[in-house]
Amino acid sequence: MHALVVDRSHPTGLRIADVRDPEPAPNQALVRVAATSLNYGEVKYVLAGQPDGAVPGWDAAGVVERPAADGSGPAAGTPVVTVADGGAWAELRAVDTALIGTVPVGADLGAIATIPVAGASALRALQRIGALPGRRILVTGATGGVGRYAVQLAHQGGAHVVAVTGDPETHGDGLRRLGADEVITAPGELGEPVDGVVELVGGAHLVDAYARLTEHGTLVTVGHASQEDTVFPAGSFLGNEGRHNRTISTFYLLACTGLAPDLTHLAELVAQGALDPGIAWRGSWDKAAEAFDALRERRLHGKAVLDLT
């Protein structure tokens, strides 16, 4: 099969090469990949630690070519969306059936490919915050892949959504169309405290957002786009004066159970047009270097999708 492999002798650090087909374990299905979406974290940081010849990639959508030998998961011919720690940037992917969601027939698999890391992370973060109707939810880094999904899902869950972006003049109208009730440049601009935070920036944003949590509020830290140190001033964790029982929560997506139903649910919403995948760049995988450069340089606000077919 063909795959996008790490090759540091190549000017881009990656090239399309012939590699051996993956051999699925009994609990894995073999999926023919139609499209993969790129995440800033894997492009900016994960690639640096990959050996030459590795096939990276977290997100992929395609069709089951060979079902799992143990009888779990979808049948051959089923359109699916998948997530795993590597192997997505290839024509064939062997993936655990617990990490496969089914996709409505006829759905745009490029749009569906944006779901796994971004959509599932947003959904799991909001689940950690708890019931959403009537609550105030802050989303930092709201123009990124996870942020866009978090704004939409929180709005659909009945929350009052406050979106944070460094450029409200450019992105404010788009975020409001996704469901944001307010758009601000930093958590420090909040007029009222919030019940929950989906935090994607780190550094001062995380510190300021935590300081504006209500009693029993939860901040879920999902990303660290700023790469700044996060330093809390003395007294930040006192529980008096309306700060009782505030929580900072973290999680690792691939350690979560029950991802297959989440992926299926999100795929249905995207296929129905109820969720906007926010594709900012899309093209053939032989133009992957163009997308990688745009992501590394933070020129994309949304998802980049590579079509393999």
UniProtKB/TrEMBL annotation:
<dbReference type="InterPro" id="IPR036291">
    <property type="entry name" value="NAD(P)-bd_dom_sf"/>
</dbReference>
<protein>
    <submittedName>
        <fullName>NADPH:quinone reductase-like Zn-dependent oxidoreductase</fullName>
    </submittedName>
</protein>
<dbReference type="Pfam" id="PF13602">
    <property type="entry name" value="ADH_zinc_N_2"/>
</dbReference>
<dbReference type="Pfam" id="PF08240">
    <property type="entry name" value="ADH_N"/>
</dbReference>
<feature type="domain" description="Enoyl reductase (ER)">
    <location>
        <begin position="9"/>
        <end position="306"/>
    </location>
</feature>
<dbReference type="InterPro" id="IPR020843">
    <property type="entry name" value="ER"/>
</dbReference>
<dbReference type="InterPro" id="IPR051397">
    <property type="entry name" value="Zn-ADH-like_protein"/>
</dbReference>
<dbReference type="InterPro" id="IPR013154">
    <property type="entry name" value="ADH-like_N"/>
</dbReference>
<dbReference type="InterPro" id="IPR011032">
    <property type="entry name" value="GroES-like_sf"/>
</dbReference>
